Each structure stands twice: as C-alpha cells, then as structure tokens.
Amino acid sequence: MLKAGVLGAGHLGKIHLKLLQQSDAYELVGFYDDSDAVAEAVANEFGYKRFPSIAALIDACDMIDVVTPTTHHFDCAKQVIKAGKHLFIEKPITQTVEQAIAIRELAKKHGVRGQVGQVERFNPAFSAVKDMIDNPMFIEAHRLAEFNPRGTDVPVVLDLMIHDIDAVLSVVKSNVKKVSASGVSVISDTPDIANARIEFENGCVANLTASRISMKKMRKARFFQKDAYISVDFLEKKCEIVRMKDAPEKADDFAMILQNAEGIKKQIYFDNPEVLDNNAILDELEAFAVSIEQNTTPVVSLAQGTEALRIAMKIIADL
Q1: Chain center to CA of 162
Q2: Looking at the structure, do residues 166 and 86 belong to the same domain, yes or no?
Q3: How many domains does the chain have?
Q4: Residue 311 — very low, low, confident or very high, per pLDDT cuts 50/70/90?
Q5: Residues 6 or more apart from 223 whose CB is under 8 A from it?
Q6: Rounded-to-integer distance, Cα 139 and Cα 180, Å
Q7: Which structural domain range is residue 175 located in?
Q8: How far is residue 149's CA from residue 69's CA, in Å, rounded to a whole number?
Q9: Are residues 126 and 234 in the same domain?
Q10: Where are the alpha helices (H) located in the chain, listed in sequence order?
Q11: Are residues 165 and 232 in the same domain?
Q12: pLDDT tens digit string along 24-56?
C-alpha cells in the first residue's frame, strides 16, 4: 500500500482524507493545514494525524494529495516533487501555465508521477459513453451552479468551466485553433458567468457555458458526430445515445424514420448505456495508485492538466 498524505483540510480536503482512509490502495498517514484552527478541528473530529509541517508530512509519505487553494499549488507541488514523492493535485493544476510547465519538467527530472484532479473524467455517465464518442464535430456544455463564495478566489472558468474544457480535450483528437469568449462579473471581482467557443483544427467546435450565479444546478454536455448524438448528464449521472442508421426496407410500425430531401431514409435508435454507480473522487485517487504501481501514464496527466489550464487562460484573456 502507498503511504498517502493530504495537504489542505478544507471542504474538499476532508473528503479526500475520508476516501484515502477507506481505500485499499493507500495507507492514510495524515495531513497538514496551515490554519491551526482548521487542523486542530479536523484532527479532533476525525482522528487523522496532524503533521507540524509540510516537510514532515512529505517525508512520511509516498504520495501527497494537494487539496489546498490554487494559490498554493505551485509551492506545494515543488516541495513534493523535489522530495521524490508522487503528486496528486487538484484542478486547476497551478495559477499560471508557466508554473504548470515548470511542475511537469520537475516531475520528469525527479522521475515521479503526477495526476490532476479532473473528477468529471471519472463520472460514471461520462465513463459509460466516452469510448463511443468518435470524432465529434460539435459539442455543447452547460455547467451551472448556485452561488458559493468558497470558489470565488478564481474566475468561473477555472472554478467550473475547466471540467468541461478537460472533458472536451480528452475526446477531440485535434489541436485548438481559436478561442473566443465573453463573460460578466456579477458578484465577484472576476467573471461569474462565461461563454467560450473553442475551434479545433479538424473543424470541431465546442461551445461551453459556465455560471456560478444560477438559480438551479446543471452539468450537461452534448456531443454531435456522424450519425450519432451523445448526451451526458454529469449531475444526474445519466447518458443517452441517439443513433441514425440506414432504414430497413420494412421498418417496424413503431420505428422512427426520417427522410431527407434526397429521399434517403434513416432510422433513429435510442440507447441508454448502463451507468455504474461509483465514487468518482475515490476512483481517480485509486487510478493514480495504479499508474504509480504499474509505472504508466496517469488518466489525467500533468501534461493534460497543463493543456486544460492553457485553454482556460486563453478564454479568460478574451473575456
């Protein structure tokens, strides 16, 4: 079992602590938080071992899980990697692309593995259909959340939209050609609602909307490709595939048939792939353990985390 420690014991940090303790892949060693009040409260309530310093925690572990505010990611990651320990780091990977590149190079130099916490990659609804998403040419995603001051230290693009940026980049096998965006700051000092259009060299277009001032929650994405439409509801953990195939000469009475102007008939088929219940955060942590033990590339590599951040920063620059 890999000895794991957590840097940051806030809302998400406590979730990671709980799951690492439950996991068969890790032995939870303890945690460090720079707030004495937070650290003492977490240690007293849950019994996790509190370490006196970041260095002490790193020294006792094989893997460090960085769940601090984004502003601390770079400094924490550097300490972890220079100590020769594997790094799991929450999204966004760092504050700047330059910092992310530096982390990648440092990890390569010290021969350690790194994974970025893009949890929607492990959402069971996305997992059920990702292998069926084949050369999509139009993608539309909406990620709406009610206002929560906890995420306002970064723009909504880095807080919410980056999930969809990463998901899109994972299925579109082409370089980004152009990015354009618009956004509005309503409550925060940075945009609270944003829309981005990402154009790829192969002609694919992704239209992403993210808001943290909505009256209701929504996390949906739709992928359109040749003869198929794939819908993913990340929030409800549901998915649907609508396929179009050449209609048979004698169709069933209940078959849905479409005919275009040229007289070509297509039959519509509906498919709801099985969505297996899971804990996406636990799955991403345990997938990282597998990549460490088998010396393979993590599901969400530092390079992929860097690219998601690069596109996110282009979007922010255009707001």
Answers
A1: 7
A2: no
A3: 2
A4: very high
A5: 133, 136, 138, 139, 171, 229, 230, 231, 232
A6: 15
A7: 121-239+271-278+312-318
A8: 13
A9: yes
A10: 11-22, 36-46, 54-59, 73-82, 97-110, 124-129, 156, 162-171, 280-294, 302-318
A11: yes
A12: 999 999 999 999 999 999 999 999 999 999 999
